[in-house]
Amino acid sequence: MYLYLIRHGDAAMKEADATRALTDVGRAEAERVAAWLARTLVCRAPHVYHSGKTRAAQTAAIIAAPFRGATVEVGPDLAPDAEPALWAKRLAKAAHDLVLVGHFPHLIRLASLLITGQTEPHVLALEKAGVACLMRDDNRAWALHWLVQPSVLGG
């Protein structure tokens, strides 16, 4: 099973926009990553979950556009301060690849928990609109499979 952890793209400052929509830069980052995912065919998850926050919902819609037939919906417990163990329990039962579009520090803490059993220290850094692909093996152990940051894709 593959789990794709995607941090939302760059968003407006909290003081400037309470809903924190993606900026033009954030939209471009997400589009660049979505194009890379589509071009390389590395991600074909049937479900894309996001936190429900505007910036995550917009990022999820952009990322999912190339995945024909993928459902995009609000997922529980994806807020920035959500408890990573809640998703770890869900993922233990999951049988299909999933995409989670969320926030720092939740996604980083979740990756750390899955890989090491602890939420700290963080095992990876994830830029805005960055994607970490974790793989669960036959022994149900998680490992980082690959990581792509928008800064390495140019633009």
How does the SSE layout of this entry go?
Elements (H helix, E strand, L loop, with lengths): L1 E6 L16 H17 L6 E4 L3 H11 L6 E4 L9 H10 L4 E5 L3 H11 L14 E6 L5 E7 L7
Parallel strand pairs: 1-4, 2-3, 2-4
Antiparallel strand pairs: 1-5, 5-6
Write a brief caption for the model.
The protein is of the alpha/beta class and 155 residues long. It has a single domain, classed as Rossmann fold (3-Layer(aba) Sandwich).
Give an overview in words.
This protein has helices spanning 24-40, 54-64, 84-93, 106-116; strands at residues 2-7, 47-50, 71-74, 98-102, 131-136, 142-148. It is α/β, with parallel strands linked by helices and 155 residues long. It has one domain (2-152): Phosphoglycerate mutase-like (Rossmann fold, 3-Layer(aba) Sandwich), CATH 3.40.50. Helix 1 runs parallel beside helix 2 (54-64). The longest helix has 17 residues, at 24-40. The chain is globular and about 40 Å long.
